[in-house]
Amino acid sequence: MRFDDTLKTVLAMPTEDVGAKAAVWMQVVDILAQDRGTLDPALRDQAYSTAQAWRDSVPENVRRSAAHSAGYACRSADLVALFGADKPMIAAPVLKATQLTTVEWEWVIPALPTASRALLRERRDLPVEVRRMLASYGPSDFALPGGDAQASGETISQIRELVAKIEAFRKDKHDSYGEPFEVQAGPSTSAFRFETGVDGLINWVEGAPRGPVLGIELGAMAEIGEHGVDGHAAGAFRRRTPFRNARMRVPGDGPAAGDWLISGLPRFHPATGRFEGYRCTARRPHRDEQPFPRTTALVSPGLPPDSLRQLIHELRTPLNAIRGFAEMISAQLLGPVSAAYRTRAEAIIGDARKLLSMFDDLDVAAKLERGAFEGRSAAGVDAADILGEIMADLHPQDGIHAQQLQITVEQDLPSVSLDTVTVERLFSRLVAATLSVARADEALQGKLYKDAGAIILEVDRPFALRRLSAADILDPTHDPEGDWPDAVPLGLGFAMRLIHSMAAAVGARFDIHDSAFALRLPVAATNGAVERR
Description:
The chain has helices at residues 6-11, 18-34, 41-54, 60-70, 77-84, 88-97, 102-108, 114-121, 128-136, 138-142, 152-171, 210-213, 231-239, 305-330, 339-370, 383-392, 420-436, 470-473, 492-505; strands at residues 191-196, 202-206, 228-229, 243-250, 258-268, 275-283, 376-381, 405-409, 416-418, 444-451, 454-460, 509-512, 516-522. By secondary structure, it is α+β, with helices and mostly antiparallel strands. The strands form three sheets. It has a six-stranded antiparallel beta sheet with strand order 2-1-6-5-4-3. Strands 8-10-11-13-12 form a five-stranded mixed beta sheet. β12 (509-512) and β13 form a beta hairpin. The chain starts with 5 loop residues before the first helix and ends in an 11-residue tail after the last strand.
C-alpha cells in the first residue's frame, strides 16, 4: 500500500510559539479525522501521541473549531477518545456525529468522563449494544464519590457535606435572590436547583431529572441550536459575579428539556476565599419572557447604515491595495520569489477575497436597512448561466467543495426579472452557506426549474441544519464563535437572513422547508432582451 506522507510534512513544521503549535495541532487532528487507512501506522501513532500531549496547550477556541471540523468526518476511535476527554462543549460535535463500530464504541466509552457519556446518551442512532452499555454506567455515573478503606473517612465527610446541603435546601424554599422557589419533580417540572464545580460543569441537581442537566457547562456560551447557557451566564462565570435570568437550554424530550431562566451566585470558601463554583436556580420563562430573543435587524442598531457604508468604503480601499500587491508577488511580477512567499501571498489573496465578500454583504445589508436596495431589471438575466459560473468558481481552499452539491438545470428556462449582481449574490450565498456546513461524506442535491411563473433554485438542507427551526437558521445574532468553522465570514444566520431580506426586497421569496431551501425568483415579463454579463 502507498501511504499518504502529508502527515509527516505537517509534523515536521516549526512550532516555536503557541500559535504555530496550535495550527499544527489542528492540521494533525484534521488529517487523522479524514484518515481512511492511507496513513503509515507508525506515523499515525506518533500523530495521536502528539495530539494528546499538545491538547491542553492549544487554545480552547481552536479545539472547538477542530471538533466541529472533525465531527461528521471522523471515523477514528482514538480521536473520539481524545475529544471525548475534553470539555463538554468541545467534545459535543464529535460525540454527537461520529460513527464507529460497536467494538470501537465499547473500547471508547469506558475511557470517557461522565459528561461525555451523558452526551452520548442523547443519541438515538447508536447500536443497541452501545446504548445498553451506556445505560449500565448510569448508577456509577451518578453515584457519590467512593474509595477503599483508607479513603473511607474522606468519603464519609463528602456524604455528610452533601446531606447537609440537601437539608439546607429543603428548609429554605427561596432562591438565591429571595424570590419564592418551589421545587417540583415529574412531568410538570417548572423549577429546579443545581450547582457547578470550579470548572463550571453542573455536578448536582435537585428537582429535575439529572441526566440531561449534568455536565452542562456554565462557563461556555451555547452554539446556535445547541443546549447550554447564553453569554450572560458564561460572562458572569468568567468574572465570578452573580447573574439573574440568564438563558439555559436543556436537551432531550423529558421533563427538564427545553428553555429555562437561571439565576446564580458564586460560592467561595469561607476561610481561604477560593472560588468553589456556582449555586443556581432555574425556572421556566413566563409567556412574556421569550428565551433566546431574536432580531430582524441585519446590522447593529448602534451603528447607522450610512456610517456602516462609510466604514466599509474606508476599509475596502486599503484592502484592495493589499490584495493587488499580494497578486503581484504570487505572479512574480516584482521578480522571482520563493515558494513559501508565493504560498503566503496566495493565502493573503484568499483572505482578502473573503473580507471583500463580507464588505459587499454588509453594504447590501445597510442598503436593505435604509430601504435603498434595488435589484430589479426589466430586461432580465439568465439564471442558469449565472448558477453555472458560480458552481465553477467555488474555491476548495475556503472549505467549500462543489462536488458535494449536484444541481440539475431544466432546459430552456425563461429569464428572471432581477439584475445580474442580485441573482449572483442570492445564488452564491445560498450555495456557499449550504456547502459550508455539509458533512465531508454528505451528497446534496439541487435543481433549478420553472414553476408557476417563477424560477426556483431548490437545494437540500444539510444534515447539520435539519434539526434547526427556521427561526434558528434566520437568526443573525449568535456569536460567530458558535458557528461552523468554514461558514461564510459573517456567520450562517447572517447569510440566511441576508438572502431572505434581499429576496423580499426584489419581489422574490426565500422558503425554508423541512428538507430543502428554495429561492423563488420572478420571471421577466418579456424574454426578448436579456441583460448580459
